[in-house]
Design goal:
Strand content: 25-35%
Number of strands: 15
Largest sheet: 8 strands, mixed
Order of helices and strands: HHHEEEEHHHEEHEHEEEEEEEE
Helix content: 25-40%
């Protein structure tokens, strides 16, 4: 079984949970990613074991009275351990109940914690490394680096100035097309940081393959290249540092392409249809300071090596 946040919303009757899911859906990655909600506890872990396709099958002709040359698709067994992530917040009952003209603090803090959790998921989806943080999960960059879907230009693609964009727009599109051709299907999205998206807007003015629509259902502007949506990935939670980094010395950055699906890039979650968990404080109970929490339990999964890739050495 698999489920998306939209489907989880349809299973939910609680108004608070509906509002929380809608907030999470405002993140385009979380809105589009599918959760394989089949994981059950094994001891003290929530392990999702799967086979990643690393070698594709071949086919050929044979002469009569001869056999085909045997060849098999190859897979590598992988394990993604689901991890809880989110955060908690404190609210003083005086602020919540008595101060006039102040926004409902529980609603405000919940909304802010959701935004931080969205950013943490995007950051870990791209940069996660259990060798650095054992409490997280491995991300796409760890799987892609050094693989066949890491597109490396002959020289850095300079998009740092209007003149550079004018001179190098064709080179950028050439290497982007080279990367797209290496994937095993049409990607669902192209992930970029804000500065690269601004530079790509300049490239877009020179190509008829770019299309723009005013907004999606959440009011987000949408830009597509060959029908593939650009998704701007923001900053790491609680910082002004972009999730897709920009080297402070060289100005170099990357972009990522992902094909969402249970045979491509998806997430794994515990068995059940509740993807988002909220624990709201009861202000009627004793205690001056109450705690609320927002939590998800998930891990990212790359089922096929050619379902994701990245283009490096783009200069901003």
């Amino acid at each position: 079984m698999a489920i998306s946040l939209l489907e989880a919303k349809n299973f939910t009757q609680d108004k608070l949970s509906l509002a929380v899911i809608d907030e999470f859906r405002k993140d385009p990655i979380l809105d589009k990613i599918t959760f394989d909600n089949t994981v059950t506890p094994i001891g003290q872990t929530l392990a999702y074991v799967y086979n990643r396709v690393t070698t594709l099958p071949t086919a050929g002709f044979r002469a009569l009275n001869t056999e085909y040359t045997p060849q098999e698709a190859k897979t590598t067994q992988q394990t993604a351990n689901l991890k809880p992530f989110g955060g908690s917040f404190n609210v003083d009952r005086v602020i919540q109940e008595n101060v006039k003209g102040v926004k409902n603090q529980i609603a405000f803090q919940t909304e802010q914690k959701i935004k931080a959790t969205q950013a943490l998921f995007a950051d870990t989806l791209i940069n996660g490394d259990t060798g650095v943080d054992a409490n997280s999960f491995d991300g796409l960059d760890k799987a892609i680096t050094g693989s066949s879907t890491e597109e490396i230009p002959d020289a850095a693609i300079d998009l740092s100035t209007p003149d550079a964009i004018e001179a190098n727009a064709s080179a950028f599109l050439y290497y982007l097309d080279q990367l797209l051709a290496k994937l095993d299907g049409t990607p669902s999205m192209i992930l970029v940081n804000r500065l690269l998206k601004a530079a790509i807007n300049g490239v877009a003015r020179k190509s008829s393959l770019f299309t723009s629509s005013t907004v999606d259902e959440f009011g987000r502007p949408v830009t597509k290249y060959g029908g593939i949506e650009f998704v701007t990935v923001g900053d790491k939670p609680g910082t002004a540092s972009p999730i897709i980094p920009i080297d402070g010395v060289t100005g170099l950055t990357s972009l990522y392409v992902v094909r969402m699906g249970l045979d491509g890039v998806h997430a794994a979650s515990p068995d059940g249809d509740k993807l988002v968990h909220t624990y709201m404080p009861d202000m009627k109970l004793p205690g001056a300071v109450k705690t609320g929490e927002v939590e998800m339990i998930a891990a990212a999964v790359l089922k096929a090596t050619r379902a994701a890739g990245k283009l490096i050495d783009i200069k901003l």
